[in-house]
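Re: weekly structure request thread

Next one in the queue (265 aa):
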Amino acid sequence: MKRLIFTALLGAAATGLFAQDANKPATDSTKHKKEYNFSFGLKENNRDSTAKRRSKKPGFSMGLTFSRFDLGLTALIDNGSTRLSPTNEFLRYRSWKTSNVGFDVFQAGYRFSPAFKMYVAGGFDWELIRLREDITIQRTPDMSGLKYTNDNIDYDKNRFSSAYLRIPVMFDFRSKDDDNGKKWHYVLGPEFGVLLTGRVKQISDENGKQKMNYDYHFTKFRYGGVLRVGHGSMGIFAKYYFNDMFNTVAQKGLKNASIGFTVGF
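Done, posted below.
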């Protein structure tokens, strides 16, 4: 996970350099209606990150990006309650170490006016659950419920996680630029996700570091709502997924929500 984030940050720096080159004044007198270039989510100008600097006219934009880097806390919602039921109590987690991390790497959108833009993006999203119990979630095709073993090991870290390809469809409402050239963003819309993998990661004195990949019955396709509010390139986000986290019978009604900070609009 750390390696992926580090790679993403390197990619962000690279796209930032490409964006600077793409925004240099062109010597060719020919003008094009469409523009495809790179953008970097940290950059806040008096324009869209993928639009021409001299224009705020309606228009389509598409390209690679590094935007909406999310870092927040995740909570499990068990049939409407933040307290886990006896059936799911084995999933007790450390609240301040259970997190959501995600970012977008592609974006295509249409700006209707300086105050409103709609876009669809593609990126990655991780739910990282730090388990309290010294257990190991089992890899099994049994759909009746998640299976686990109680281990006679004191784990330094016992993390149960999922990775999704995320596809947000967002409506971005923007204020006018302030004196510093920054604007307020109010962004909301649905987000869809396709499961890439599940993972159990454990660290202990007895076994060292262990990683086990499997789908662990995480739902293959998820859908939810996202809200983002921010000024300039910094803001906060909230996510709630409407379908269950797992496709097992025993975990029916177990959902997840996240809240945290976001960088790049």
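The radius of gyration is 21 Å. DSSP finds one helix and twelve strands in the chain.
Next request, please.
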